[in-house]
Specification:
CATH architecture: Orthogonal Bundle
Number of domains: 1
Distance between the termini: 32 Å
Number of helices: 5
Structural class: mainly alpha
CATH superfamily: lambda repressor-like DNA-binding domains
Shape: elongated
Mean pLDDT: 92
Radius of gyration: 18 Å
Strand content: under 5%
Order of helices and strands: HHHHH
CATH class: Mainly Alpha
Low-confidence stretches: none
Largest sheet: none
Helix content: 55-70%
Length: 102
């Protein structure tokens, strides 16, 4: 398994720094545009919420990107977190698949 060396950027930070701030869009205005609550968007931007498939569709429509872009950002962030926060997954023993000769 290839290890990521640095922590991936949370998608909320990308929304904030690459879209909201340069375009001078408020959380209130963006949440209205996305059809979600201000609280929901605020959680994502403050890195306490995740990008769901529904949110990925909304963001892709709003910012002319793809849903996969947003889901991949979230997946990479989540995997890095899981790998570095818990070590229990390392206790799993690999399953040996041997081919049985007929």
């Amino acid at each position: 398994m290839r290890k990521m060396k640095r922590q991936p950027t949370h998608p909320g930070k990308i929304i904030k720094e690459d879209y909201l701030e340069p375009l001078s869009i408020t959380i209130k205005d963006m949440s209205e545009s996305l059809g979600i609550s201000r609280k929901t968007l605020s959680k994502i931007i403050n890195e306490r919420g995740s990008i769901t498939p529904d949110m990925a569709l909304r963001l892709s429509r709003a910012f002319d990107t793809t849903p996969i872009f947003w889901l991949n950002l979230q997946k990479n962030y989540d995997l890095w977190q899981a790998e570095h926060i818990s070590e229990e997954w390392q206790m799993v023993k690999p399953i040996s698949f041997t081919r049985i000769a007929s």
